[in-house]
């Protein structure tokens, strides 16, 4: 196997990981900022107040974006399997 092909596969997989994790990370970040602003204005410093909304938001983002994420992952896997003949010589 050539090094260039191997590096391209690794690069595509890392890019896919970043793209697939982005909806959950962005949701957690936005909810975290909103809860932090709420805690700063009300001076409530409860740990579960920031944890529970993030978990609920991340689960909702998985429900909303789950079909898209599975489709992207299946497409990548099919392309990877289809390129086995060109990669392995």
How would you spell out the order of helices and strands?
A: HHH
Overall number of structural domains: 1
Oligomer: single chain
Distance between the termini: 7 Å
> Structural class, from secondary structure content?
mainly alpha
**Helical content class:** over 70%
Report the C-alpha radius of gyration, rounded. Answer: 19 Å
Strand fraction = under 5%
Q: Point out poorly predicted stretches.
A: none
The profile of the biggest β sheet is:
none
Number of strand elements = 0
Mean pLDDT: 90
Q: How would you describe the shape?
A: elongated
Concise description?
This protein is mainly alpha-helical and 89 residues long. The protein has helices at 3-42, 47-82, 84-87.
Walk me through the topology.
Layout lengths: L2 H40 L4 H36 L1 H4 L2
Helix pairs in contact: 1-2
Q: How would you describe this protein?
A:
With about 90 residues, the chain is mostly helical. The chain has one domain. The chain contains 3 helices and no strands. The protein has helices at about 5-40, 45-80, 85. Helix 1 (about 5-40) packs antiparallel against helix 2.
Key attributes of the depicted protein:
elongated, 89 residues, 0% strand, mainly alpha
């Amino acid at each position: 196997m050539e090094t260039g092909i191997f590096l391209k596969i690794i690069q595509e997989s890392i890019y896919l990981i970043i793209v697939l994790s982005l909806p959950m990370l962005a949701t957690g970040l936005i909810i975290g900022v909103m809860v932090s602003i709420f805690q700063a204005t009300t001076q409530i410093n409860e740990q579960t107040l920031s944890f529970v909304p993030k978990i609920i938001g991340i689960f909702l983002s998985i429900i909303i974006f789950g079909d898209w994420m599975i489709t992207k992952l299946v497409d990548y896997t099919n392309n990877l399997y289809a390129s086995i003949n060109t990669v392995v010589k």
